[in-house]
Amino acid sequence: MTVFHVDNGEPVVVPENEWGHFYSDDIYIIDLKGAKHRYIVMWMGPKLNSEELSITTGYMDKVTNYENSSMITRNRVRKGHEDESLLSLFPNGFFIY
């Protein structure tokens, strides 16, 4: 698993010791690479309008090196809508500042 923080439109790798610490005005991407499938989960703190939301696709494209195939599942999660499967990725806790 790799976690990215979107900083000035660029995904930047988050050090492992900071995983699970998210800031409510920011966007994060969790990249899970399995043996046969890859999952990209974008966590979005701010509420985005439709234009801003469409821009976020580009962030995921950068993380996947612009690969778009049936072997990659992409999903977006808004702040406050995290389910147990996402929270379980962070055994040391999921904190929103």
CATH topology: Severin
Number of helices in the DSSP assignment: 2
**Regions with pLDDT < 50 over 5+ consecutive residues?**
none
CATH class: Alpha Beta
Q: How are the strands of the largest sheet arranged? A: 2-1-4-5-6
Distance between the termini: 22 Å
Specify Rg, calculated over alpha carbons: 13 Å
What's the architecture, going by CATH?
Answer: 3-Layer(aba) Sandwich
CATH homologous superfamily title: Severin
How much helix, percentage-wise, in residues? 10-25%
Number of domains: 1
The proportion of residues in beta strands is 35-45%
Shape label? globular
Based on DSSP secondary structure assignment, what is the total number of beta strands?
7
| Structure classification | alpha/beta
What's the short story on this structure?
By secondary structure, the protein is an alpha/beta fold. It has two helices and seven strands; from the N terminus they run βββββαβαβ.
Q: How would you explain this protein's 3D organization?
A:
By secondary structure, the protein is an alpha/beta fold. It is built from two helices and seven strands. A hairpin with a 2-residue loop joins strand 1 and strand 2 (10-13). It starts with a strand and ends with a strand. The model has no long low-confidence stretch (mean pLDDT 94).
Descriptive key words:
97 residues; alpha/beta; Severin; 5-stranded mixed beta sheet; two-stranded parallel sheet; 36% strand
Chart the SSEs and their pairings:
Elements: E1 2-7, E2 10-13, E3 21-22, E4 27-33, E5 38-44, H1 50-63, E6 72-78, H2 84-87, E7 95-96
Parallel strand pairs: 3-7, 5-6
Antiparallel strand pairs: 1-2, 1-4, 4-5
